[in-house]
Predict the structure of 2-oxoisovalerate dehydrogenase subunit beta.
Amino acid sequence: MSKGELRDVTLVEAVNLALHWEMEHDENVVVLGEDIATNGGVFRATVGLKEKFGFKRVMDTPLAENLIAGTSVGMATQGLKPVAEFQFMGFIYAGMEQIVSHAARMRNRTRGRLHCPIVYRAPFGGGIHAPEHHSESTEALFAHIPGLRVVIPSSPQRAYGLLLAAIRNPDPVIFLEPKRLYRAVTQSVENNGEALPLDTCFTLREGDDVTLITWGPCVMETLQAADKLAHQGVTCEVIDVATVSPLDRETLLCSVAKTGRAVIIHEACRNGGVGAEIAASLAESAFLDLQAPVVRVTGYDTVMPYYRNEAAYLPQVEDIVEAVEQVIAL
């Protein structure tokens, strides 16, 4: 896809476009991870990069997530901009020592002398019939860490623009890509190198009756639920949080001030999830605007089940509709 060309692409293709653009325009951007060079990654997000930019900038690594995370820290402190891929989010835990103790703290530790412009990419979430450790949704672990941004695109356009912004950001970003959306839809994306803002929610649909707050893979079901509720005369405002840390609380509070009701939808388990932080923020700062308690539609506090039971674990359109009906009735 040539520069400036407008074309319908999938989310994973949009990731690939953003990587191509930034590597072409910034020679300090390098890509590393398991099977990302010769094979183009397990989901083909990095296909074509090695052929275009060479093995010195597109590097296959050993099966060693701690090495991937730590090598990226060293590269970043010396002027490179590494984009490191973990094959699945469930594999990222071996690298958390480097991410939490070094990447996230480097700017503070050196009083601004060094910083870590790293993007740690990982496919995350369920819905593709994968085994455990391949279907994790543990964004809340990283949202809790000072010094890290946690960004989750939910469409091809946002994947393209947010990944560009993440690579250009001077501090580390955890960039989580919902793999069940990788090829779910196509969207027109202009390959023009324009980034989208980080730390900002996106209002995908205006409404007056209830605010639906979600991110990542659940955006798809949430929009479908909003369509279904519209036939019942209920207008939903749908907000894609996109950057779950730091949170754009202002957009959320303004929406709830208008609608008076909120339902939070996320795939991750309920206990300690990002949804709980959002609910607490609404209780603290929008209490007098709320006409009903905040309701959460989430995964269960269990390990993600194998594929036969995935649908029972993942929030469904009917679950969201039922939750909205519950808060509207109050």
Q: What stands out?
A: Residues 238 and 329 are 19 Å apart (CA to CA). The radius of gyration is 20 Å. Residues 11-25 form the longest helix (15 residues). The longest strand covers residues 262-269.
